[in-house]
Amino acid sequence: MQEIYLDNNATTAIAREVFEEMVPYLKQLYGNPSSAYSLGAGVRAKIEEARARVATLIGADADEVVFTSCGTESNNTAILSALKANRGKKHIITTKVEHPAVLNLCKLKEREGYRLTCLPVDSYGILDMDAFMDALDDSVAVVSVMLANNETGVVFPIPEIGRCLRERGILFHTDAVQAVGKMPVDVRDLCVDMLSISGHKLHAPKGVGVLYVRRGIPFHPLLIGGHQEEGRRAGTENVASIIALGKACQLAGDSINTEATYVSRLRDKLQDAILEKCPDCRLNGTTDNRMPNTTNISFKYVDGEAVLMLLNQHGICASSGSACSSGSEDPSHVLSAMSVPAEVIRGSVRFSLSRYNTQAEIDKVIEVLPGIIKYLRDISPFGR
Q1: CA separation (Å) from 74 to 77, 79, 101, 109, 313?
Q2: What is the per-residue pLDDT across 62-113, written as a single tens digit (0 to 9) for each?
Q3: What integer pLDDT is reported at residue 343 of this predicted model?
Q4: Catalytic annotation on 324?
Q5: Edge-to-edge, what's the strand order for the sheet holding 294-299?
Q6: N or C: which end of the chain has fewer CB within 10 A?
Q7: Residue of 191, 249, 317, 324 with catalytic role
Q8: Structural contact between residues 299 and 307, judged by C-beta atoms closer than 8 angstroms
């Protein structure tokens, strides 16, 4: 049975070109990039090529790109660095719908004595900008707001927030893990000080990420040790994965229009068919400003996990929300923040596509899913 993969916000397949570019650095080109001899120097040059490719994708300068192990490390480094740079300020602003890599860290700092403001969203997942403006004061050390939500795909007004914070001299970080590679991203237009990327969200391997650090801002590294990454992230570089990420960023830049057209058409075809063919379901999130690959739909009177299990029997992979929350019995904190009723949250399924999906795959899901929903409702203990 051919697998149909529609969970690209959880992780992505490594692109063939990406894999081919990294393989030599797992085999014969194994030198340490800090070594002076040619085997190491050649590896160092390839890392710098990757750095330039990442910078090109996000509109940064190469020396503003710091390689990390993942999006979580990038998020943690950005926020903790900002707090160290502003030791006299004890106020953190974020949102109620952030990824756990941001939200749980902020809640930890709250328990350690910081004041935490988590901005609300409305029923469409749109950020409450009035609440943001009301929260600003002289005690704010850092603001961290995601660029695009991983569960609904809703895109937040980062440029507007960034311009406001830049005028006030407040450090601003955005978790762009779900956005980079799926929509155009330019750090200058966004007006951010720090931005996080994760390789495995854009067809590179797991275990590599990036933190963009705007030149001139105060920065305190999370990992202390050697001189790697100009002293901003100690530890011997994950060479093959860094090179792979560079290639993935190059491919993403080349295909960004595909994401905006081909992928969004596939997404809309799937979404429209589900809403038409499956009664008593609802779209979670706005349709006006969201990533081109994501749709989140709730099916009333059924359990989302049961939907996923039956989809899996047909070789179809989707999810009920953040992969980092998988296995939790708690309802989605994102949908809860949107005031989605509890009985509706229970039946939520997220479909997240990539440029490697096909029309035939979408047709298969449209063929299979309505029967699954009908079957589950017929046997549902929740009633109708």
Answers
A1: 5, 9, 9, 17, 36
A2: 999 999 999 999 999 999 999 999 999 999 999 999 999 999 999 999 999 9
A3: 81
A4: yes
A5: 281-283, 294-299, 348-352
A6: N
A7: 324
A8: yes
